[in-house]
Amino acid sequence: MTHLVVLGLDIGRELQEGHAAVFLLARSATVDRVVDALKPLGPTIIQSNLTKEREEELVQALQG
Known about the structure:
This protein is mainly alpha-helical. Helix content is 38%, strand content 6%. It has one domain (5-63). The protein has a two-stranded antiparallel ribbon with strand order 1-2. β1 (5-6) and β2 (9-10) form a beta hairpin. 0% of the residues are buried.
């Protein structure tokens, strides 16, 4: 399996077979509401406030 390393996190290592990773980049959202909306799905949520530079790094990594 190819592992995607984003911002120092090895996403592939964290995933169980048959599961998926979802990245949400929100510039203006109430974080609590977003987390509450996702909770019924039983996710592992990793959240961070990124600097503009780290945000650009994440976007580039995800665009491959």
